[in-house]
Amino acid sequence: MSFYINNTNQNRPGPICGNATNGLCEKVLIEVTKVFDACVSQETDTGLVLTVANLTPANPVLPLTYISAENTPGATATTSNIVIERLETAPNYANVSLDVTIPVTVYYRDANGVLGQGTSTITVPKSVILFVPQPAATPVNIVATGIFSSAIGTYTAENTFTVTGCIEIVLKVVALVDILVPSYGYPVIPPCQASQTASVCPGTFERPLYPTAIGGQTRN
């Protein structure tokens, strides 16, 4: 079984039925990334120049024919040149200016019809108004997620394409903080439902799955 397969145990994640306070047993201090504000922008840009490196396979026969480009899976966008200018009329808000660089994979066909790909980046300047908390010992950061997609482009120079693409950028104001939250305690993790017959360990494991504090947490 799993949390959601043939499992009726109440100590599992899922929808809440009835009174949500039933079963609350403790207040837990957790370390999380808190999002204070966020926004998303979508735009179509023309004339984007993609200079391609790390060609695979190497040494394609020129000229190349553009196929498409998209943000590189697993690679994250980076931010730079961040400037935060607080608004005089609303000090909890600020004009946030920055550059967002998105890693891109470009797909092409060489003069012999061999498919290939290479890496590139696009850098997008952004300037937006966001809620930015007042300075504290815990630093506040501006982070970005970038998505790029292009199916229109031409080969304009050696290993260089000029393209039209759709860009989506999500900006967030975040900080790593400690938050006190109500908790139902540890979940009961059920045994896996194996897709194939598996051998079972002889005996039992004596250690609990999660750490516990015997006798409570208070001290006089």
Could you please describe the fold and organization of this structure?
By secondary structure, the chain is mainly beta. It has a domain of 150 residues. The protein is 0% helix and 57% strand. It has no helices and 8 strands. Strands 1, 2, 3, 4, 5, 6, 7 and 8 form an 8-stranded antiparallel β-sheet that branches. The protein is flat, with a radius of gyration of 26 Å. It starts with 25 loop residues before the first strand and ends in a 37-residue tail after the last strand. The mean pLDDT is 90.
Short description:
The protein is mainly β and 220 residues long.
Describe the protein's topology.
Blueprint: E1 26-51, E2 53-56, E3 65-71, E4 78-87, E5 90-109, E6 115-131, E7 141-157, E8 160-183
Antiparallel strand pairs: 1-8, 2-6, 3-5, 3-7, 4-5, 5-6, 7-8
Attribute tags:
single chain; 220 residues; mainly beta; eight-stranded antiparallel β-sheet; 57% strand; flat
